[in-house]
Design brief:
The chain is of the alpha/beta class. Strands 2-3-1-4-5 form a 5-stranded parallel sheet, sandwiched between helices. The protein is globular.
Length: about 170
């Protein structure tokens, strides 16, 4: 069975860039972008933070896909905006898997700067700050938090791959 890396953090923090870099360094891996799964719904699409969203089916599809790849021996790198409560549920679902969990964070100036580098249609603008504050107030265990404002992309990837502290433990979080 493969290992599972779950990266989360606010929009604009670098989840996609870092996740891709991790997946590229692993011998047998798959990169699963939560946004890609969420945007598969076309008819009846609602933003994830709005009533009537399709998060229930989204999570079922993500969990099944992660399991299929893990059972086939792939390391899975998954990223999405994940609340602490949702992560606890995921940790329990994947309790028999080597699981690394990382909350990527930066300061307000950095997140807005990174968001502006995105194509206009993908920029989240003020929503980045709302999400950043939600993550800062979620009281994640410090072992899982990684501030990347002063780290390069390669330094961030190295830190996640090599540091054992990001492995989850059933009694921790």
């Amino acid at each position: 069975m493969g290992r599972l890396y779950i990266l989360t953090g606010p929009a604009g923090v670098g989840k996609s860039t870092i996740s891709k870099g991790i997946a590229e360094r692993l011998e047998k891996s798959v990169l699963l972008e939560g946004d890609d799964f969420y945007h598969q719904v076309v008819g009846g699409y609602k933003e994830a933070w709005k009533p009537g969203n399709h998060l229930d089916i989204f999570w079922k599809v993500c969990i099944d896909t992660i399991n299929n790849y893990l059972n086939a021996g792939y390391d899975v790198v998954f990223n999405y905006i994940i609340s602490k409560d949702k992560f606890i549920k995921l940790k329990n679902i994947f309790e028999n898997v080597e699981l690394k969990f990382v909350v990527l964070l930066v300061d307000e100036t950095t997140i807005l700067k990174r968001d502006r580098k995105r194509p206009e249609e993908y920029q989240m603008k003020e929503r980045c700050l709302v999400l950043l504050n939600e993550f800062l107030n979620n009281n994640y265990d410090d072992n899982y938090i990684l501030y990347t404002d002063k780290l390069s992309i390669n330094q961030t990837i190295d830190e996640i791959i090599s540091n054992e502290k990001y492995y989850t433990k059933q009694d921790n979080l």
